[in-house]
Amino acid sequence: MDKKIRQAIEDHMNKVGLSNAELARKMKVSPQAVGQIINGQRGKIPDSLNDLLKAIGLELTVTPKKI
């Protein structure tokens, strides 16, 4: 699941033309930190949350925010 969410984030960034540097400015972190988050080196979804969701028949998904 973690990989699917990271891929959805990366796909959306590409779709809207948002670079790691631009996202980093919005988040007030370094571009390297954004890269680490997107490639899974940082900010992982805890296994316990994944296990809990699976046990109750749910999954975490990413959808565009409605404006």
Q: What report would you give on this structure?
A:
- The structure is a single chain.
- This protein has 4 helices and no strands.
- With 67 residues, it is mostly helical.
- The protein is globular.
Question: How would you describe this structure in keywords?
Answer:
67 residues, mainly alpha, 4 helices
Short characterization:
With 67 residues, the protein is mainly alpha-helical.
Question: Which sheet architecture does the biggest sheet show?
Answer: none
Radius of gyration: 13 Å
Poorly predicted runs: none
Strand content: under 5%
What's the layout of helices and strands?
Layout: H1 2-16, H2 20-27, H3 31-39, H4 47-55
